[in-house]
Amino acid sequence: MVRRVGPQIRIGKSVDKESAMGRSETDRVLRHLFRALDWRALGDVYCDEGGEAFWAEHRGKALRLGLRWADALLPRLAAGGSSLYAGGGVADLPAVVAEVVERGRTIRIANLRAAECRLLAAGLTEVGLAGSVTVVAEDAGAAASGAGVLDHVSMVSVLTDPETWPQVSAVGYGRMPPALLDVDAFTRERAAIEALLDALLAATGPQSVFTTTVEEVPWLLRAADRLGVTVEADDVLVESAIVGDPIGFLSVRRPDDAERHTR
Fold first, then answer.
1. pTM of structure
2. Dihedral of the CA atoms 131, 60, 136, 203 (nearest 10)?
3. What are the residue ranges spanned by the domains of the chain?
C-alpha cells in the first residue's frame, strides 16, 4: 500500500532548526575529512580527464548541499541506528558524518568502484571514523545482508546509473526511442533491480527511511506493492550534492507477523 502525505514536493523547504544546532563538531570533522581526501585520485575515479579541476569546482558545493541534505535527514533518524548508503560516494559524506557525529549511528557504504572505496576509507580513517563507517566494494544487496537490521537506506541515483542499467536509465530519462529498446536486456535489468530492492527491504526493520531520488521512487513503490510494504512520502525535497537532482524521503513500514497472518 502506498500513501502520500502532504502536498506536492517543494524544493528548498525549511527544515527543523533543531537539526542544524550542535553542528560545529560535524563541520570540524568534515573540514578535516575534505582536507584529507585525495582529490587528484578521486578525480581519476569520477572523470576521464580534468578530474582534479572538477573537484576543485564542485567540492564546496558537495559540502554545502550535503549538509542541507543532512539537516533534512537527521530528524527522521533515531539515535544509535544503522544506515546503508547504496552506491555511496563523496556526495554522501556530509550526511554520513552528521549521522555518526550527531546521532551516534553506524554506517555501511557500498560502492562497486573499489578505487573510490579505498580512497573514502582512507579519509574516514584519517578523521577517526573507521570504527563507525565501513566502506565495502560490493553490491548493495550483498552489503545489506551483512549490515544487521537497517532503519535507513540511502539509494540516490543508483537505479538510474547508465553504466549499471543502460536500458532502464535510457528509458527513465527519455533517451531511448521505443523502437530501439533491447527488450531482453531491459527485462534482465528490471529483474536485477527488483532483486536488489527485495534485498534492501529484507534488511530493514519494522520501520525505516529510504532516501532516494524522484526518478527511483516508482521502483520502490512497485517493490512495496509486491511485498505488502507500506510507504509514506512526505513533501520535503533537497538537492543532491553534485548534480542537484531532487532527493526525497520515504517512510517504510513492514507488516509484522500478526498483520501478515490476517491478510
1. 0.87
2. 90
3. 2-262
**Is residue 84 within 8 Å of 154, Cβ to Cβ?**
yes
The torsion angles phi and psi of 244, rounded to 5 degrees, stand at: 90, 15
The cell numbers describing 24, all together, are: 560545529
pLDDT at position 256: 67
Residue 261: per-residue pLDDT: 37
What CATH class is the domain 2-262? alpha beta
Angstrom distance (rounded) from CA 221 to CA 216? 9
In contact, 240 and 207? CB cutoff 8 Å: no
**Per-residue pLDDT tens digits for 172-209:** 888 988 899 999 999 999 999 999 999 999 999 999 99
Residue in the structure block whose three cell numbers are 544503522: 82
Distance CA 232, CA 259 (A): 18
CB 244, CB 254: distance < 8 Å:
no
pLDDT band for position 92 (50/70/90)? very high
